[in-house]
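Lecture 7 notes: from sequence to structure.

We start with a single chain of 212 residues. Read the sequence below before looking at the structure.
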Amino acid sequence: MDGALDFDGQSQQVQVTQAVSSGALDFDADQSFTIDAWINPRSFLERTMPIVAKQDPQTGIGYRLFLRSGRLAFVMNDGAASAPAYFSSDPLWTDSSPPGWTCIAVTVKRADCPANAIGTVYVDDRQPETFPLSAGSLVNSGDLSIGGSPGEDFFHDRIDEVEIFARSVEQVTISQIYEADARGKCKPSEGEDAGAPEPWRLALLSSSSWSA
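Now the structure, written as tokens:
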């Protein structure tokens, strides 16, 4: 992917400070949302590698999408005693076979019935996996971070085309994103997502900052 961010795995990350003041990337108890991105982890590391995170650095309230020992993982923390975490059933790759560019997405559907929130994770064209989620508010004062998160290690290698939708995106749109590949994100022309509000994209936010 041309123009991808290449992280050194030691200190580099992108922090979006406008996310705090605008509240656009915070989600209350009855709000659904979707995160998607392309990642290219070129080496296998037995550690946590954050992809996208927005969490309060003190309480941990918020959400985090990351890799841990090669598995895709997602956590929503609403401040309850225990926050259920999702870990993919199979690793994305092993030390002998890095996957190259991989399309990942997580949808959180809880607008209809927050008490029975359901998450769905997509990896390329694999069968999607679903899991239960926290029902409470994720609103917090933390920055949105790409490639890093509070108290975690840093992502090593490349991340591109990060998007956050303020709704649960349908599977047909996730498939379109995957099938677009290096041509870039394609906008839906038909179906339920046509005409829906545009997502937040990293390239559209002027207050994003690169730190090293």
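The first helix runs from residue 18 to 22. Keep this in mind for problem set 3.
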